[in-house]
Amino acid sequence: MVVDFRRAQSHHSPLFIDGCPVEIVKSTKFLGVHLVENFTWSLNTSSISKKAQQRLYFLRRLKKAHLPPPILTMFYRGTIESVLSSCITAWFGNCTVSDCKTLQRIVKTAEKIIGVTWEETRVPIGNP
Hints:
Pfam families: ALKBH8_N. This protein is mainly alpha-helical.
């Protein structure tokens, strides 16, 4: 992937490594984060939301098995919240409003499944 911040678009000559040209791609996945040439994060957000939606299925199954809310919360934090917050400092600041709503919808769905709101389960940090 070629990253060029110049305003005027220009053609980039091919890069050769060991005599073979390096392929120029529009997007790539690096350390679990989808990087797109124009640095939009919609592809990354859709990938994250898809993973989280798949894990919500298992949260629903655990709820049907009548597990208590603390166990469901622990499962959520270990399997879903960890996916939602992976490399969040890199991509969340430039997310669109619709991407943020998509992620928030997953969190709200998990709250409904577990039957708690996160304010009830969080430990206060710092002075009250």
